[in-house]
Structure formats: structure tokens, C-alpha cells
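[job 0412] stage=fold_complex status=start
inputs:
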Amino acid sequence: MSALVFDVSHLLAGSLVLMSFVLLYQDRLPSLINTFALQSLLLSLAIGWQAQAQGAPHLLVTAALAIVLKAILIPMVLRRLVRSLGIHRTIETVVGIGPAMLAGMALVALAMALMLRVTAAANIFAREDLAFALSVVLLGLLVMVTRRNAVSQVIGFMSLENGLVLAATGAKGMPMVVETSVAFSILIALIVIGIFLFRIRERFDTVDVAALDEFRGDRQ
Amino acid sequence: MIIAALLASVALLLGISLVALAVAGRRQAGVVVYGATAVACAVAVAAAAVGLAGNQAIEFHLPIGLPWTGAHFRLDALSAFFLIVVNLGGMSASIFGCGYGRHEIAPQRVLPFFPAFLAGMNLVVLANDAFSFLLAWEFMSLMSWALVMSHDREPDTARAGYIYIVMASFSMLALLLAFGILAGPDGNYAFDVMRAHGAAQGSAAIVFSLVLLGAGSKAGLVPLHVWLPLAHPAAPSHVSALMSGVMTKVAVYAFIRIAFDLMGPLDWRYSVIVIGLGGVTAVMGVLYALMQHDLKRLLAYHTVENIGIIFTGLGLALAFRANGLTAAAALAASAALFHVFNHSVFKSLLFFGSGAVLASTGTRDMEKLGGLIRVMPRTATGFLIGAAAISALPPLNGFASEWLTFQAIFLSPALPQWGLRFLAPAVGAMLALAAALAAACFVKAFGVTFLGRPRTPAAETAVETDSMSLAAMFALAGLCVVAGIVPGFFTNALGTVSHMLTASEMPHQALVALGTPLLPSLGNPNSYSGLMVAGLLLLAGTVTYLAVRTFANVATRHSLAWGCGYPDTSRNSQYSAESFAQPIRRVFGTLAFDAREEVFMPPPGDVGAAKIHVTLRDPAWDLLYAPPASAVAFIADRLNVLQFLTIRRYLSLVFLALVLLLTVLALWV
Amino acid sequence: MIQALALQGIQGLLVIALAPLVTGVVRKTKARLLLRRGASIFQPYRDLLRLFRKESVLAHNASWLFQAAPYLVLAFTWVAAALIPVLAFNLPLGPGADFIAIVGLLGSARFVLALAGLDVGTSFGGIGSSREVMIASVGEPAMLMLIFSLALVAGSTQLSVIAAFTQSPAVGLRISLGLALLGFIMVAIAENGRIPIDNPATHLELTMVHEAMVLEYSGRHLALIELSTFLKLLAYLSLIASVFLPWGIPPTWAGGMQLASALGLFLAKVLGGAVLLAFFEVSIAKMRVFRVPQFIGAALMLALLAGLLRLVSQSF
Amino acid sequence: MTFPLDPALATILIPATSAALLVFVPFYRLGAWFNVLASLGTFVAAATLLVWRPSAGRFLAVDDLNVVFIVLNTLVGFTTSLFSSGYIAHEIETGRLNATYLRFYHAMYQFLMAAMNLALLTSVTGLMWVAVEFATLTTVLMVGIYRTREALEAAWKYFILGSVGIALALFGTILIYMAAQPIVGEGIAAMTWSVLQANAVRFDPAILNIAFAFLMLGYGTKAGLVPLHALLPDAHAEGPTPISAVLSGLLLNVAIYAILRFKLLLAANAGAIAPGPLMMTMGLLSILFAAFMLYRRRDVKRFFAYSSIEHMGIIAFAFGLGGPLANFAGLLHMAMHSLTKSGIFYSIGHMTRIKASQRIADIRGLTSSHPLLGWIFVASVAAIAGLPPFGIFTSEFLVVSSAFAHRPLLAVVLVFGLLISL
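[job 0412] stage=fold_complex status=done
writing structure:
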């Protein structure tokens, strides 16, 4: 395992984390979607690199899946959705960008601290990748938590899944079943979200999740 | 054999309850069910009496319940005595129910639970392992709760039921904790094992307070009594009789079983708590009772009072036993147990009486009654005997057991601890106060309900109750008299029980020479003979009567009431329950209940009515229950917000949990 | 044995025969102290006879309890009074009732009377009963504390044992006994409805207690109740006489001379007590009803003090 | 593994194929009966496992633990299908659902059963995750089936929270694989329970710890443990009542089963954190929280949803405590809870139909108007509240008493929670 291989995969995984930060930084929907597309692209590159490094060609499928679905298709659909539904372009955030970035930093530090405890005996790839993947997962959650728009939350969720895929591909020799299921679940997720977005569109003026919560049968 | 008979009668009771479930809607179902229940109880009384006489611990094991322990049962002197109390109460209540049950609006809500309730109480007393005990205990609570809820259309019932079920679970869980500690790390829940190793030194205090909380709340010790006056009156009257007269005794049994039997020898300090609580309970209970104008609630508060007397006796027994004064301990324990029996008898009687009144007039508010002695003379007589007995008047049974309790208190100077020597007479004065107030209270209860002029048409047109109800009442009234004039018979029977608890017993009272007075303990010259007093009273009364008949003018003229010459036509000018208790409320009320009187007098020239408004607060409620209740409500309100968060906020919760967990892992592991 | 039984009988008859006289003496003394001539000390007998001869008037709605109550009250009071040892200690029926039982018997009498007060349903009866039970509710604990401190000193609640103890030289001069006596007198005044608690001679509605209860009675019923009232006063006086001043009472039947002297001493003690009571009554004003608990509370305090002193040291 | 005879496979295949077939059954009555039949078949197959246990296959394995779950699962699945066949006709009458949706409903029902059975029987962690994922998606659709605003809201909530939970669980699953891979080698072996369990001693404890954190939170979301409980009450209240019964009685068990499996794994590794305290903490939190929430409930289905959270807390507590007694108590409690809670939801289904309201205040006087239903409901409520003579009393007693044997202080908290919950 050459240093170059290690460095490249490190670089790619690291840039994924960077993209997560960019996601966290965005306050407009179109650029958020673009950033997500970019992250997915980087993810597919990382997977491709892993496929090459591990000598596991089936990972290329996953990489292709990532490009087609997450880098191209979904961002397209989302852009159209935003346009056709006339959703506000600005994202309402819960905390300011600054604090969110700080929190993100803290999360990355946490991920690192956790993974460093893992004994070096484990696959070195796995260890580094896992640290980054964990960061991406946590940052994705942070995006979900700090954004109010449904679309941006969905993007946060998908970015979280990017982290998962990164982790899964980093795990050497993990059976195919996982990848397909991830892809599958993303697909279904999107369909269902689509249905829901439409339904919600039918009944509510915005996709803002907060509007959904305004009425409750049990409120006294 | 005996225990098999007892268990069979329990099974019979459960069977009756199932049958009742099926036939409850039929017309004659009540008589059948109550009749069968009475028979089952009679069998159980007989078996328990044999067991008490036999004085041997019989154990029995059934392979049901928990897979590796099964159900253990045991019949010893203590349980035999309480079985007699339970089933005697059950029998009389069933007989009363034969008649009274006809007035029931929804018999299908009473009939199935009534025998099951009795079965539950029997099982509590028979159980010989913690699981069976708690199972039966909770079953008993649940069945009585169902009975309380049987009149669920009445306004206060829902609240009473709610508070009752909360308190019942509280008592169950307190006992569960107590048993848990008693069982120790081995987790053996058989009573035999617990008895063998007793309570560990460090945990005894915790176990004891838990038992006091668990059994005390069921029995109605102040300040855990608040549920009792709500729940007991809400049930149908014969059930109220069972709950007040019998179920509280089952709680007393639980206390005795654990504190005296399972925990082994106890330090004298514990007795201070019991004696003190007993005294306070007696006084507070009767003071509360005095302030009531609901007949059944008044009776329920009197249960609290009598529980206080019983616990005082038990506390004294603990104190004497801890100091090795076994004879005195036996006296105190016998006094308490005798009072257990007596109270179950006269409290059932009184509840039956109030039930008859309720059935006949449709109300239990004394302010709406009056003059019933003229339309319901037999009920009135029964009630009067019960009232005199509970007021501890000689020559009835209430006096006999209170007399024994006082005698036990008079032995307290023999105790080496100063605290106890001061406490015991103080509690004695409290018991005397309670007895005097009880007499006052029953003058009020009987006087306002049965005497005077009817305050409403309902009271005027009431009719005498049915013969079955009367039979049950007079049987109990007879028992009051018998236990009052030959108390020695009962203390003799209690000898084995007392021996079990205190390793000693009261001197055997000779019954052959019937005039022999009751001797509390050996070498003690004090004595009281119910029979002698009763005989003398009879003699004095007869002599007087004959003398008056012979020598005096026996002419009688009927006329209007004199009333110092004021024609007094309004029924409402009579003394009401409220006004009767007013002087006592003025004396004790401000202290005990924060009683406030607001008097509104119209200004001169205004012809509007003057008004007086009295507010009473139960300090136990304010101090002990309101804070936790409001705390729970407060927390519930705060947490309730959590239900209505947005998805994002829920996600934040998940997220925070995750981060927290990971941080913990990163920092500590 | 026969003699002892006879003595018991004599004692029973004696108290009932003597009771009106005691009240007569009180009344006479009071009258003289108020510079009136007063009726003869035998006037109560005449009053009773007069009442027995009259017909009884009952309210229309009076129940059986109302008619039975006078007999019951008299029976309870009489038994209580008859069981107090005044002529000899160890009488055969003595073990039947100790001090507590005697207090209990008097309590039973009051219970019945209070009920009778409520029977006709006039407001006066209610006033009387209500106040009577209030006074009793504070009086009884005080009484029991007194019994307790006596029992502490004498080691028993049995009257004959207590009396034998106070008679013995072992008694000495005890503060606790003195306090108990004082408390006992206060309770006795309250229980008998004397001034300052109640005025037996008043018929002013706002101040009545006992008289309000029995307002509806007349004829033989009233006579019986009056007689019970006389008996009750005598019972308390003879309790004082036998517990605190037991001198001259023989332990058991000891011949005619002993009996005569015991009888004479008893008469002297009781009548002396009656005179003292009269002195006390004319020198004090009746207090408001709600001051009564304080008055009896003082008795309770005395009793507690006596008990405490006794507990602290054997010599008190 | 001979295909036609393997009951383990049958418990998955019967519902799966029925799901596919039911899509094509046009009449809802026929569909309902077919549904019942399929559930019965599944139950029979599962019950066979009790007496005859096939040897572990590549993907499926039956052992002492999951056989209890599977039998319970299929049994309640069967009774619920019976109840639903009666209930659902009523939905047609009131027009809340039409025939198309019913077809969809029945197919989804069987699909849900298949997914849950697979999750319980599979021997592969990844497959289990896939099964739970499918179960989640199906549930979302079922909850939202009424398409009212509230139902959609509940489904949406369930969907988002469930997806996040499932994502966390996946991360945990991957981590477990990563921990196992250096020891047992690549491929399916590193995902098989039996292999994992046997080699857990040598796994890297640090990875195991992180993995358990994710798994606990991920599957815990499904189990409704506080603070991950949010989706439960809404989903219970707004979905069709049979689905509420399935959710409360079954899906929660599946999630608990998953947690339990991973807990055993961690418990086998000495270097890893003890998973017990974590489970016990969450269990206690759930009990206390749910107890306080019960206090203010007005909607009867929501009320019992919170009661489910409480009972899951008790079960998690019991399993967290460990030891034969507590584990037995936990299993017993779970079985009793499933049976009783589904029974309660059946009665609620009838009650809400009769009274046309889900508010507790509106549902009164039932014992007089419908005595049988009313009393059954009263009895089952008594049972769920842990009152004798019902089974939950026994299991609660066991939980508390085993808590005593080990950690008396926690027992006090536990008892306190049980007290408030009344």
C-alpha cells in the first residue's frame, strides 16, 4: 500500500468533509443543491479510488450509482421542485452560520478523537475513512438540525447517507448487499419524499416542516 | 386439611364471582350470590376457628404462580385470627347484601367483584411468600377499586377511584420494596426464609418505614389516610363495611406479619414512631369525622381513628417486647388485636345502618335526615348499639378493648427509655381525647340522623329496611354486646396469637365463674368486668323502672314541644350536624384544619339573610399530597411540551443524544 | 361474704339516698352566703317527690329513646356511684370496675342524655348537647391523665388499691398528689356543670348547658334526671373522699362500729365538700362557653405536671 | 436446507408471496380473508419452529432467542389480521378508505410481516438492517394511508425520524463489520451472528463501543426509547387501528430484538463498555418520561402509545440488567405486553368506531352500553397497568425483584416510575 494511494484516498475523503462544511455554510437553496451534487461527485471519485486500491471492481457500480443518482438526477429533480413549487430560495437557519461552523468543527474533532482510539491494527484505510465518514454523518445531521426548509433537510439527510456510503466502501470486502440496499433505500426515499412533497404541496403553502406541526390532535 | 378447606372456600368465592359474572343480570342473582358467599365465608370462619384453637402452623404449597417458587400458604394463629375477622365481616356483609343488594342500580357491577374481593383478602392473610402476598394484595385492592367505581355516575366517584388506585399502587410498591430488601441479595421471597434471617441491621429502618408506608396507607394512618374517606363511602354500603371494617384490618395484618413476625426482634426506637403515629391518627381521625356531615364519610374517618388506636396498641407491644417486658407486650398486643376484632364488628354494623338509611332515604347527607328513629326504629336501635360501642362506652366491646389499651399504657412507666415513658401517657391522653370526641361525634351522627324532626320529606317518608339487613345488623349488635360483657373469652382465644407475636400472653381469664373480672396481666390488681357492670346496670335500671311504675305517677300527656316557650315550627331551626360540631370546631379546628369562619351580616335595615361560611382544610392534603401532585403536574406540563416539537427539534434530540454518547465514549472510555 | 355483699348493697342505697341531701346542702349554703334564707336542705327530696307525683308531658314526636333515657342515665350514674368504695375498700363488686370504668359509666350516662337532648328537635336541646359533648371532650382526657398520675403514684387504677395507698403512711406529702387533687376538683366542677362552667340554676338560654338538654323533660322523667344529677355530684365528691381523703374507711367489713364511723366520716367529708363547693361557686362568675376548654386545659396541665414530676422522681 | 420443508423460510416467504398476490386481489373482502389465511399459515410455520428447528442456513438461523420473538410476532400478526378483516370493512363504509387503498393495505400488511419476520430470523446483520428498513418504509405508508392532514404529518414525522434512525443503525452495522473483518476475514462471515458472537472477544473494543452507540440510537428510535420516542405517539394515533396494534405489539419488539442481539455481542467483549447501564438508563428514562406523559393524555390511542414507550422502557431495563431472571422477566414482559397491547388496540378500534371519537373523555359508559367490550377493555387496561392477576404483574414483579438483587437504588427509581405511571 503506497503512500500515494493513502494520500489520495485521504484527500478525497477529506474533501467530502469539506463539502459538508460548505453545505453547512450555504444559505441559498440552489447553491445548496449544487454543493450536494459536488459532494456526491467527490464521493463517487472516492469510491472509484477505493475500488482501484482495494481491487474490488464491484465498487465501481456504487460509484456510478453515486454519480448518476446523487450528483445528477436528484439535484435536477430538486431544482425543478424548487422552481415549480416556488419555494423560497433563502434557507431559514436556526443558528447563525458562525456557530454552526463552530459546532461542525467540534463534531469533526469528536469524530477524530473517537477514531484515534481505534487500534492501528485495524485496516488503516478503514480507520482514516471511518473518521471522515463519521464526520460527514455528523455534519449531515447537523445540517438537518439547523435548517428549517424541508428541501435542505432532505439534502442534509442525503449528505449523511454519503457518509454512510463512504464508510461502507471503506470497509474492505463488505458484501454487496449493503451498497445495493443503500442505493435502494435512497431511491425509495426519494420517491416517498416526492409523494409527500406533493401531498404536502396540496395541503400546505410551503414545504416548511414547521407548518406541518402547527396542528395536533392532542394539543390541549 | 384445615388450610385445604380454607383454600377451597377461597376457590369457592372465586367461583361464585365467575358465576356472578354470568348471572348478574338475573332477578334473583343477588340473593344467590350473596347467599353462596355467606356460606363460603361461614365455612372459612369455622375452619379458621379450628385453626386458631389448634394453634399449629400448617403450611401448604401449590405449584402455581412463579415457575420456581410456586405459591406458599400458611395458617398460623395470627392468620387464623385475621381470617376469622375477614370472613365474619364477609359473612355479615353478604347477609346484609341479600337485602340491601336489591337497591343496587347496577348489580352487575357489584356482584362479580364482591366475592372476589373477599377471596383476595383471604389470600393475603393466607399467603406465605411475598409474591403470593403482593398478588393477593393487589388483587384485593383492584377488586375493591372496582367496587368503589361501581357507582361511577356519581360525581365524586371518579376522583375517589383515581386517588384510591394511586394510593393502592403506592402501598403495593412500598411493600414490594420492603419485601425486596427483606429478601436480600438471594432474592428468596418465601416468608420462611425471610423469617429465618430477619431484617439486616442496616436495612431494618428502611424496611420498617416502607412497611409503615405500605400497610399504613392501606390502613389509613394519618397522614396517608386521605384516600380512605373518599373511597370507602363511594362504594355500596356493605362494601364500605368490608373496606372499612375488614380491609383496613388486612393492612394491619400486613403490618403485624412483617414488623412482628418476619423482621425479627426490633429496636425500641421503631415503636416510638408507631405509638406517635397511632396517637396522632386517632385524634386527627376523629376530628375530621366530627366535621363531616356525610354519614358514610364520617364513619370512614372513624376508621382512621380506630386504626390509630390499634396502631398505638401495636406500638406499645413493640416497645414492651423490645425491652423484654413480654407480659406487658402481650397485654398491648391483645388489646390491639381485640380492638381489631371489635372495630370490624361495630364498623360493619354502622355501615350497614348507614346503608339502610341510604337505601331508604336516598341520601347520606345528615343535614337532610332526622327523625328516622320513628320510621326506622330497628335500624336505629342497631345503629345506636354500634355507636355506643365505637364510642367506647361500657359495657360494650369498644370499651373493653380501649380499657385494655389504657391498661397497657399504664404499664409504660416500667419501660427503661425516657422517651417512651413520656410518650406513652401523652398518647394515652390523646386516646382519651379521641374516645371523648368519638362519643361527641356519634351523639351528633345518631342525633342528627335518627333523632329530632325530619329535615326533608325523604326522611319523613322513609320506611324500615328489610329483614335480611336487620338480621345482619342485629347479629353484629349482639356480637358487640357479647364481646363487651365477656371479653375474657376473646382475650383467651387471642392467647396463641399473642404468644406468637410477643412470646407471652395475657393471663387466662376464668370463664367458669362468669362474674370474674378481666385481669390485664399477672400481679396487676386492675380489673374490669363487663358482665358485672352489665348486670348491675340491668339491676339498677329494673329497680328504678319498677319503683317508678309502682310509686310514681305514670300518667303521660302528649303535647307540643316546650322549647322554653318559643313555638318552633321550622324544621331548619333544629341543630344541624354543622352547628352541633361548631363548639368543637372552635376549640380544635383552627389548630387542626385551619378552619375559617366567614360571617356575613347584612347592614342594619337590610332584610337579606345573614350567611356563615366555613372553610376547612385537611393539612395532610395540603402538606403531603398537594406538593407532589403539583410537582407531577408541573413536570408533566413541562414534558408535555416535548410532544409537540417540530420534526427538526426531535432530530435535535436524537442528534444531541448521539453527540452526548459519542463524547462520553471519547472522553471516558 | 354475705356481710360484704350486704355492705355493697347498703353502699348502693346510701348513695342514692344521700344524693339529694348533698345538693340541698350546697343550695342552702349558697343561699346563706348570698344572705338569703334559702330552702331547707331537704328541699331536693320534696322536689323529687313533687315531680314523681306529676304527670309527664311528652312532645308529640318524642321517641322511645327519649322516654328510656332517664332510666338509662340513672342506671349508669347509680352504678358508677355505687361502685366507689366509701364504706369499705374490698367490696365484692369492686373488681368489676376500676377508675376508668367508672369514668366510662359516667360517660355513657352523658352520651344517652346528650342524645335525649337532640330527640325532640328543638334548638335548645341541640345547644345543650353540643356544648355538653364539647366540655366532655376536653374533660375526659384531663380525667384520664389524672387517673394516670394517680396510677403512677399508687400503682393501680383500681379505686380500692389507690385508696389503700393514700391511706397508708407510705404516701407522705406528695406534690403530685396535690396537683392531681387540684386538677380533679377542676374537672369535677366542669363535669357537674357547676359555676364557672355552667349554672345549674339558670334558665337563660344563652348560658344553659345541662338545663338546655333536659328542657323537654317533665314529671317522673325529670325527677329521674334530677336524681342522676344529684348522684353525679355525689359520685365526684365521694371519689375525692375515697381517693384523696380515704381516712376512716376500713379495708373490708369490720363490724358495726367501724361501719358507723366510716359512715360518719363519709358524711362529714361529702357535706364538707358540698359546703366548700358552695363557697367556691358564690365567689366566682360564670365564664363564657369558649373559655371552658382553657379551664379544663389547666386541669389537664396540672395532671400532666403531676405525672411528669412523678416520672422524674419517686419522691414527688 | 430443503426449500419446501423449511418452516423458517416459510415464515418469510408466505407473507412475501401473499403480499405480491394481494396486490392483484380486487375485492377487499377476499383480500381480507386471504390476509387472514396467509397470517395463519405464517403462524403455523412459525409454531412449527418450536418443535422442529431447521439447521442454520446461510441467511437464516433459528435459535433460542429469536424463536420466542418469531412465534409471538406471527401470533399477534395473525390475531391482528383477524381483527383487521372485521375492522377494515367499516372503513369502507365510512369512506375513509376505498377498495384500491384496501388492496394496497393488505399487500402492505403482509409485506410488513415478511420484513419483520426476516429481521427476526436472519442470521446476517446487514440483512436484518435491510428488513428493518423495509419495515419502516411500509409503516410510513400504512400510517399515512388515511391521507388526512394529521395522518400525513404523522407519516412524515415517522419517515424522517425513522430514516435518520435507520441511517444511524446502518453506520453501526458497518462499524460492527469493520470490527469483525480483521478477525474473521472478509465477506458474509463477518456479518453472521453466530460467527460474530463466537469471536466478539477479540474485536476491537473501541469500534464496538462506537458501533453500539449508533445501533442503540438507531434501533432505539424504532423501539421508541426516550429521547428517541417522538415518532411513536403520532404514528399510533393517526394510523388505522390494526396498524397501531402491529406497531405497538410487534415492530417495537423487533427493534428491541435488534438491540438485544448487539448488546449480547458487546457483553461478550471484556474491553467494550458494558451496554447494560446504557440500556438501563434509557429504559428508566423511558419509564419516567412516559409516566409523566400518560398523566396528560386525552387521546386514547396516544395514551396507549405512551404506555408502549413505558413498557419498552421496562423491557430495555430488564435486558440491560441481564442475568437469567431479568432476561426471563424481560421476555415475559415483552410477550405479555404484545398480547395485551394488541388486545387493547382491538378494543379501542371497536370503541372508537362506536363512539366516533378517540378522546378518553368521550369514551364512557361503555360497560353499560356494550358490556362485553367494555369489560374486556377494563380487564386489559388493568393488565397493562401491571395489576394482578394478569401476566404483566408477574413480569414487573420479576423485573423489580431482580433489580433488587443487583442494584437496589435503581429499583427505587424503577418503582417510582411505575408508581407515577398509574
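[job 0412] summary: The helical segments of chain A are 3-25, 29-54, 58-85, 97-116, 124-146, 150-170, 176-203, 209-212.
[job 0412] exit 0
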